[in-house]
């Protein structure tokens, strides 16, 4: 279990804002921070990484203290085992894609792992290119691949898939979800894309003006379905009434109907994920 307690006075175009949050992250789970622009999400990520100092607080990752204002503990950014994907990618410009990944490897014997992840991210064919030649979506995938090869104890993803097309997004979402579970990785996902949050995360904190205003599991309600883990289906029918929408999913040839809140955007033929703990 990891705990994040942060207190910091931020200043923006609308004046001062007090960031005051207290939340937990679970191992092997994807926890999301969701909220509008300026709510303080990226500032939280920067404080976790040690790039911004809180005024007060406590950061404990997998029972290791990274920051504790009461006991004057502040781990330097380079000593925090965190993999970051920031909105501005921060790739090394003088290195090729492959070199960016190799540089991040903690153990140089894991080179085959670089080739595997380049393949998953559909970057193998351009692995010799430098970042300046890449599109936004390609840079984003390199940043994500680089964060994963670091084998961090904490993965922080700030809008990690925003520049990708729907098909690639869906493929990488599935990979990320499986990767987090298999490697028991603690993941913090930051996004204002509700669909992404709903399909990827196990638990969601909604943040507004520096405070947590809501928390809970993704709002997908369904009955049991063979107690299967993480199900992925295709939306084959949508029926709406004034309270909810009924969504018919085709999961490996088996059809099931679930009720979903009206405010969740769903389209025909899209890939839909059911989280393990709602089944
Ligand atoms: N180093 C800093 N010191 C003080 N205030 C800051 C600092 N960096 C950012 N801020 C302010 O903190 C507020 C929250 O910004 P932040 O980037 O954390 O929000 P956000 O929720 O991530 O928004 P977005 O989704 O647009 O990235 C903004 O008003 C910003 O101007």
UniProtKB/TrEMBL annotation:
Residues 1-234 form the ABC transporter domain. This is Molybdate transport system ATP-binding protein. PANTHER family: ABC TRANSPORTER I FAMILY MEMBER 10 (PTHR43514:SF4). Keywords: ATP-binding, Nucleotide-binding. The keyword Transmembrane does not apply. SUPFAM superfamilies: P-loop containing nucleoside triphosphate hydrolases. The keyword Transmembrane helix does not apply. One of its GO terms (molecular function) is ATP hydrolysis activity.
């Amino acid at each position: 279990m990891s705990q994040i307690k942060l207190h910091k006075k931020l200043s923006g175009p609308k004046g001062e804002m007090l960031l005051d949050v207290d939340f937990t992250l679970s191992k092997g789970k994807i926890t999301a921070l969701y909220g509008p622009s300026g709510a303080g999400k990226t500032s939280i990520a920067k404080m976790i990484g040690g790039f911004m100092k809180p005024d007060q607080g406590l950061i404990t990752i997998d029972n290791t203290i990274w920051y504790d204002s009461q006991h004057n503990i502040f781990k330097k950014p380079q000593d925090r085992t965190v993999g970051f994907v920031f909105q501005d990618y921060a790739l090394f410009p003088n290195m090729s894609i492959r070199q960016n990944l190799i540089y991040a490897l903690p153990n140089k014997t894991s080179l085959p792992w670089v080739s595997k992840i380049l393949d998953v991210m559909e970057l193998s064919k351009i692995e010799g290119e430098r970042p300046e030649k890449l599109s936004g979506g390609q840079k984003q995938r390199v940043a994500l691949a680089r964060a994963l090869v670091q084998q961090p104890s904490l993965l922080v993803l700030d809008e990690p898939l925003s520049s990708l097309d729907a098909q690639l997004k869906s493929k990488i979402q599935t990979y990320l979800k499986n990767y987090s579970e298999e490697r028991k990785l603690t993941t913090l996902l930051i996004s204002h894309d509700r669909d992404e949050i709903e399909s990827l995360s196990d638990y969601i904190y909604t943040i507004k003006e520096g405070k947590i205003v809501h928390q809970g599991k993704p709002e997908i309600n369904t009955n049991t379905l063979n107690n299967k883990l993480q199900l992925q289906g295709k939306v084959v029918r949508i029926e709406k009434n004034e309270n909810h929408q009924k969504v018919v999913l085709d999961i490996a040839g088996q059809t099931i109907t679930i009720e979903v809140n009206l405010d969740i955007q769903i389209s025909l033929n899209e890939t839909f994920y059911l989280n393990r703990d709602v089944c």
